[in-house]
Specification:
Number of strands: 11
Strand order of the largest sheet: 2-1-3-4-5
Radius of gyration: 18 Å
Distance between the termini: 43 Å
Structural class: alpha/beta
Order of helices and strands: EHEHEHEHEHEEEEHHHEE
Number of helices: 8
Helix content: 40-55%
Shape: globular
Oligomer: single chain
Mean pLDDT: 87
Strand content: 15-25%
Length: about 230
């Protein structure tokens, strides 16, 4: 089950409250990763906000802050690290809630460790290949340069606030952000939810209306424009 010794070791955050499962899984993961283990969502969030990780593994059922709440908090903080969610819950609704919260993939317990390692390799490859670019349908967003590129490659410059808004939405493309969530994350104290709508309009005006999708009575999420 050993990983390729020539592969670059990554730093992994593992969130699991069951000590026996955690001990065995950390032992396996340590063949390929420098692992930091957190038994609660609250502790994991503290580590995630103060460290840099190549990938995260999060159990869905945790005491206190559960796995979905943790993932949502991480994405709200604009942390784009790929996340694999582990779940003993087999229903489609349970898996969908994790993905909608911002997880990139899921694995149902009990799982095979070889599959777990393969899923992690796949997540890391996809994230590294992206090189900081984010695909929004046929458009490309580059947060570092605060720019959008249309399907023909034409560059559209964004302001800092427009870029921060799009970075938040595109970091968790399946999650619907309420106006209050966006306001707290992107805007300054004293701004109102009206500012959110205004900047959504600005981004759409510079690009296309479909770049940001309105979800009625809920808020906004990243669109899939052509």
């Amino acid at each position: 089950m050993s990983e390729n010794s020539g592969a670059e070791r990554g730093i992994l955050l593992y969130v699991e409250d069951d000590p026996s499962i955690a001990a065995m899984t950390v032992e396996v993961l340590s063949e390929a990763y420098d692992v930091e283990h957190a038994p609660t969502g609250e502790e994991a969030l503290r580590l995630a906000l103060n460290g840099r990780y190549d990938v995260m593994i999060v159990d869905r059922r945790l005491p206190g802050m559960d796995g979905v709440e943790f993932v949502r908090a991480v994405r709200t903080a604009r942390i784009t690290t790929p996340i694999l969610m582990l779940t003993a819950l087999g229903s489609v609704d349970d898996r969908v809630s994790g993905l909608d919260g911002g997880a990139n993939d899921y694995l149902v317990k009990p799982f095979d460790y070889d599959e777990l390692l393969a899923r992690l390799r796949s997540l890391r490859r996809g994230f590294q290949a992206d090189g900081g670019r984010r695909r929004l349908g046929d458009w490309t967003f580059t947060p570092a340069s605060q720019a959008l590129y249309d399907p023909s490659g034409y560059r559209v410059a964004l302001t800092a606030t427009e870029s921060a808004l799009l970075e938040l939405l595109s970091g968790s493309p399946e999650h619907v952000f309420s106006r209050d969530e966006i306001l707290k994350t992107v805007f300054r104290e004293g701004d109102t939810t009206g500012s959110v709508d205004t900047y959504v309009h600005y981004v759409r005006r510079k690009s296309t209306r479909d770049i940001i999708e309105t979800v009625r009575a809920r808020g906004y999420r990243a669109g899939n424009p052509s």
